Structures are given as C-alpha cells and as structure tokens.
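Internal tracking record. Fields below are filled automatically when a chain is submitted to the structure queue. Please do not edit lines marked as system-generated. If the sequence contains nonstandard residues, flag them in the REMARKS field before resubmitting.
Queue: standard
Priority: normal
Entity type: single polypeptide chain
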Amino acid sequence: MAHLIGVDVGGTNTDLVFVDTEAGELRVAKVPSTPANQADGLMHGINVLGMPLEDVELLIHGTTVATNAVIERKGARCGLITTKGFRDVLEMGRRDRRQVYGLHGDFEPLIDRVDRREVDERVSAQGELLTPLDPEEVKAVAKSLAEDGCEALVISFMHAYANTENEEAAGNAAREVWPNDFVVTSSEVLPVVREFERTSTATVSGYVQPLISRYLSRLSERLNEGGYDKDFLVVQLNGGVMTSSVAARLASNTILSGPAAGVTAGAAIASDMEIENVVCCDMGGTSFDACIIRGGQPVTANEKYLDFRIVLSLPMLDVDAIGAGGGSIARIDSSGIIEVGPESAGADPGPACAGRSGNEPTVTDASLVLGYLDPQEAIGRDEGVGMDVDLARAAIQEKIAGPLGLAVEDAAEAILTVTGAKMAGHVRRNLLGKGLDPREFSVIAFGGAGPVHVNRITREVGFKSAIVPAYPGLTSALGCVLGRLRHDFLRTVNVPLSTLDPAALDKIFAEEVQKGRSLLESEGVPEDRITATLGADMCYAGQAYVIQVTFPTGEALTKDSIKSAFDDAYHERFANLLPHADVKIISTRVTVASTEDVPSVADLTSTTATTEPTATTTRAYFGGAWIDAAKYRRTELPAGFRIDGPALLTQADSTTLIEPGFSATVHPTGNLLIEAIS
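SYSTEM-GENERATED OUTPUT FOLLOWS
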C-alpha cells in the first residue's frame, strides 16, 4: 500500500494524516470535529489534506461514536431476552452501588426493565441441557419487543458459554421475526463465564450496533461520492483494525478505538528510540488517556467499566481515561476549591478564548493566559478558531480569580496545578497498582494539549524522562495507519490443570484459530500472512483474580509446558509462587493477526533540518513572575539540537512547553527527548 489516510475523530478535533509509503511523504491536517455527524468533519479534513480520494488506496479510521453513545446514553433502544429468573441481572451487577447507604439506587441500565423479558430454558454450569428452549416462545417475545419499539435485540442465557445450543436456537428463532439484522447473542460476543459481565458486554454491543452500522454506512456513501470506492478499516479496542463491514457486526469492538490507535503509535515511537518502558499520555481537548507499555508491549485488560455498572469484557488495550483535556472546564466547588473537568467545552463552543460564545474558563484558557501558547499558532486557526487572550483572561477573572481574590495569572497557574495533579495521580495509581516503579519509565506525551503539560506530568509522577512525538497532536491518527488486521477470541473452559486433556485443549485452540483465519481471509488477508498466538487466563484454585499467560509459539502444549508458562507469568506479576496449590485454566485466549507490513514511523518523521535554528523571545509566567522564554519553530530543529527551558516549540498541531529546569534534545527520529537538568 502506497497511499494511506489515517483519521482519528476526537471529541474536539478530527486529526488526519496522509502517508505515501513509497515516497516517504507525510501530510497532516487538524480540523474541528462535528459531533452531530462525525462524517462531516472527516470529509472536510480529507479536503484540507488535498489528496484526491480516488488516489487513496486505504483509509483507516479511529472513532468515538460507540464510546460517546454509551457515555451519553444515546444508543439504540434494546430488548433483552434472558433465562427465567434473571431479568434483573444488569441491575444487580456485582451488588455494587454509588451510595453505600440508602434504600434506593440511581443506576439506569442501558436496557429499561420494561424491555427485558424472560423465557423458560436452562443449561447447567457443566453444559448439561436441563430445560430445552421453545423457539415459538422466543418468537412471541421478540415480536412483542419489536412492536414496543425496540430496534436491537440482545439474547443472553445462563451458562450459554458452556453450551450454546439454547442461545443459538433462540437467536435463529428471533431472526425469523426481527425486522432488522440487529440481533446479538452473548455466546457470539463473549463465550465466557460470569453472567453479569457477559450480559453487559452483549448489551453494549446491541446498544451501539445500529448507531455504528448507520454511521459506517453513511461514511461509506460519502467516501464513495468523493471517489473512494473501497472498504475502509476501523481501529479496534485491542489496537488492531478490522474492515468496516466486520465493524458493523462487532460494534462493541470500536469502543476506545481512538485511544487504542494512540497507544499503537506510542509503542512504535518508543521502539524507534529503543525505550522499552513508557506510559502513553494522550491529552486532547476532552480527555486524558493513559496506557502502560512494558517491555515494548502495551499492557492489556479483559474488562473495563465504561460507566457505573456498565462493564465491557473484551480483550483490549488497558487504556484508562479521565475528563482532563485542554477543553476541560475549571470551576469553584461548594467548598471554595478549584475543580477541573470532567465537563468539557468541546468543539462547540470550545474554550472562552476561541471566541465562539463560550464563557467558561478552560485548561487551554489558563495555558494561554500564562504565555504557554502562542495566539498566532492556534490549533484550528485555518478553520476560524482563534486564541483571544483578553477573552481567556475575562473568563478566568469572572469565574475563578475574582471569587477567590487572586490575580488572573495566579488563578490560571492554580488551574494548571490542579489539572497536573489530577493527571499525575491518575498515572501514578495505574503504575503503582501494577507494582511498577515510575522511575523506571518514561512518558510519551501527545494529543493537542499533552506537550504543554509534559514537564508537569514528568515531575509529579517521577518519570526518568519524557518523549514528545514529532507530530504530537496527530499521533493517534498516525497510529491508525500502523494497525494490523487482528481479532481476539476468548472461550471459558474452567478446568484444573491436573485433570486437563491436552488433546481437548488443542481442539479448542484449533477451532478458534480457524475462526480467526476465516475472518481475516474474508477481509482480504492472504493465508500465508496470518499468524496466531495462543494463551490463557489462569489462576491458582480458589483465586478470583486471573493473569494472562502466553504460551510459547511452535511448541506442543503439555501440562508441564503450560505450568511452566503460568509460573513465569505469575512470578513476574507477584514475585512468588504457591507450589502446592493446583492451577486452573479459566479461559483460552487466541489472537489471530495479519503480518503484512506497516509504515515505519521513523522514516516518516525523521527531521530533515540541518541548519542552526533562530529563536525569538516571548514572555511566560512561572512561579509567580513573568520571564523571557525562547520560541522556536519545531520543524526547524535539527537532530541533536538541545533547548534549555524556558522555551516554547510551536507547530501547527500542538505546542511543546519546556519549563525552567528541563531540557529537550531532538532525536534523529524527529521526536523530542525531555529530561530534568541535573
């Protein structure tokens, strides 16, 4: 593939990169997002790139449509058919509640109780068929849900992971009477134990499937009208990609799509710089996303809470997000303390400084007031988005400085102090919760706002160094073109290692691998460019917590080899073993991926500057005083060039702030390496 476009649609901006792999050309664009219809902003961004769509061979897309639909509760009306007696599984959850005390909860599930129905069927935990399903009962219930206005149907039965017979029969019966293709069964989405998590995941899939399907269909039509007549790819939550036709069926896999692309790019950047342990910190306009990369590999997870009691259990990159972006709104709470986020000014009206009728002070406004941003280098300035310092000062004066009796500059500094503490605390908890020492890690700061706060995060978390990519505001878009077609599969087996039949395990792995191969081949991947990785979720008998274990490639699986792989993984995680305890395999894990080549980030971003750059002088506020700071154009910096703070490095997609006490050196890859001055 020579001509590629990567698109990351965020809550505030839509980022695009065009890559010509043969010529080594990279074009970039950043335009305001269009929340009402994300396709509008995407198509506008393609026009800004100036690349005719008929000349584009592949478009890869990261999207927030599914994530926002769940968070904002704007998905489809769904019906749920479940086993008799389990109508309230979504509300029961894990018996957690927001308010510990009180008789009433405030949880609203994605599917209202009136749209949840029961049928008479039952399968045991061992897979024994106890009560056969009556397909006619399912048809009658499905008809009534459709007549009541449900657009999607979710079917989740007890222990369907152990025996899919009843659930498959229910799905087939429902499809005979359901008016569209939006029928989801839990055993297709997640054939694993734990009925709440499985039902919740299937519910999320059904809830977003109509929305994703319509969005992808509209986008396909718009692209076709523009001259792009091929299928496009969508980034998955595991960091891989899938065709849009598959994404329409596996809609829940598009959750956290954009952040996953950023992690993919971060891993490639760290690899190019020969740094194994990093934390990706993506600070955009709306959120702050963090993911740990250890030993060159992103940390993964099986479960993520999208909101209270709304859990998604799928193989995914372990990205944790909080509401702390450049557009996050600062306010004074009832106790007189400054709070920042999670509310965001978004793309419209945006920060107060944008001049779009917004009057709430944001993190961007505070950065502008302190001189950390150049008004002439506003992100989106070509789209009519400005940076008016007077508007920013007025908003901070009215909402923060005045009520607290502070100077505007001191109020702005307080806003950034709170923001930095919030982000640093989030990252520190993630690292320490996994038993990791921040001093052994570097941070990769990207997103439009990330490089402004990179010094603060580095200092407060205790990172040994920091990296700012060559195009920090477009890193997630760049990550889109680095993803490989990939699919992950889980299946519950729940068997002690002592009684394991290795032949039965081989059979399960063979079935899952073949399922993945068939899916990839349907997406156009040649048979000889497909690889499979086998593993399992395992634990000691009696433990509730499982660890992910990867089995050696190309070796026959035996009880001894499985035990050895588990011991290695467990010891690395907990630094001890329980030699007399039995080991259990809870679920098998299969990753099937394409091995086709992807572009080299370093080849695209390596600096071409050769002459000594010329600095201008600006003023910035640090520690209660205005001081002179050097200002450079980022693209004019040659490899090896060192800048001591205070300094501003400006470019179209972001601004990098080098605080006093820090220095930045330009790496041959075009990335910046930032370290504290000793």
